[in-house]
Amino acid sequence: QMNVLLGRQQADELLEHVAARLKTVVSSFEDARDEGDMRAIALGRLGGAQFAIAMEGAVLIKEASGLARQILACFQAPFTLDKQRLYLDARIGISVAGVTERNADKILSRANVALYQAFKDPPGSYRVFNATHAAEAQERVILDAELRDALSQDNLFIRYMPIIDLKTGQAAGV
Hints:
two-stranded antiparallel ribbon; 5 helices; 174 residues; extended
């Protein structure tokens, strides 16, 4: 959307501003942690306007939610690009992996499921992944496949019964 409104070059410049602001938030979050907490936090752009933040080691949902709130707060102030003030919305999906979880694709997939759930809420929202979200996502995939199969095989049809106005004998609805 920003590419269309601003052009590719300015949209890329805006993403650089977003990344810089995110980096500032992550750095201040790191600085506020206990002195002995040396766990690494990595920030990276996944593509488009999606960024990922990975926290090393055991992370509590409370800790990840706190960082999410700080990130969302940083989007309250406008971004300035060529003297133009731009307000951006953000939503966050959080996946907290177990200590033994090493599959980055699975962790990111769970975060994407949570992000999809966050898009059901107003801008400035975050959601933490849970198994219910995964089940809902799986149901959507199955339903989509079934609907596409039914359409391609001409197995989808509509049945309806008209509502007849008894006084006039005319159809009043379906």
